[in-house]
Amino acid sequence: MAEDSSGATRQGFTAPSAASAPDQATTSGADPKAATTNVAAAVAARKLARRADVALQVTDVARAASTLRTIASRAGGLVVSEEVSSDPSAPGAAEDAEGTKASDAQAAWGTVTISVPTAKLDATLDEVAKVGTVLSRQSSTEDVTGQYVDTSARVQTMKASVERVRALMSKADKLADVVSLEAELSRRQADLEAMESQLAALDDQVTLSPVTVRLSTDTAAVTTPEDPTGFLAGLASGWDAFTTSVRLVLTFLGALLPFAVAAGVVVAPVVLWWRRRRVTVTTPTPPVAPTA
């Protein structure tokens, strides 16, 4: 009996433990889907300001800039700034069979900054990467939740403060009180507008993400010109130096000519008068003949 009871006791103790093991594992383990949902909700509740910087190597900078404008338009964004250096005589410009430059569309470098909705930033970066060869790609995220919440709370507080001053003005019956309350109302309204501007700027930073794309021509297409040597090269170099010297001398003489003319107009009458005066002074008087 003792053994049976002890065995029953052991069975009664171990059986529930074994049966409850899966339940304990289920309750102790977190649901992956629920955890992912919680993390996504937490991230969505944050105010994140994102930006990116991409360096691309392309064969045609002007065409790449046009493609970037199209990408920004499709994403619902805009082009913030664009700077493209187009030079058909650049070494990277394509040449046709006759050795002449094929198009004015070739460019040496360019920088295009677009701004797209933050929710479409990652997809936009993938589209930008297809424009050329990615040399570098950087992105950053700044959490401005604290600053946003603080600024929003200050805006609400200032709005309430402005309403209180307006209520006091409606009850004021003395001119001095009215003047004082108007000055205070103006000051608080100015502070409110400044805070609203800061809040709007934070909204822009959170809503739109700037993407700066730096473009450069394909280095494989750039041919390094050979260093010319020999008699003809020396002759051409000497002729360039001679023509440059002549241009400098002519430029210097042209700059001095107006001053020389002005000096001649002033000095010529003085010199003429001085010469006439010397002739008058140095002319001898004829001797007087003696009388008989």
Describe the fold and architecture.
This protein has 292 residues and is an alpha+beta fold. Among the domains are: 41-142, no CATH class; 146-206. Helices cover 60% and strands 18% of the residues. The longest helix is centred in the C-terminal third of the chain and has 52 residues, at 231-282.
Characteristic key phrases:
five-stranded mixed beta sheet, 292 residues, 18% strand
In terms of DSSP E residues, the strand content is 15-25%
Silhouette:
flat
| Extended strand count | 5
Question: Biggest β-sheet, characterized?
Answer: 5 strands, mixed
Write the layout of secondary structure elements.
Layout: H1 2-28, H2 32-45, E1 48-58, H3 61-74, E2 78-86, E3 107-117, H4 121-129, E4 133-143, H5 145-171, H6 175-207, E5 208-217, H7 231-282
Parallel strand pairs: 1-5
Antiparallel strand pairs: 1-4, 2-3, 3-5
Helix pairs in contact: 5-6
Compact description:
This protein is of the alpha+beta class.
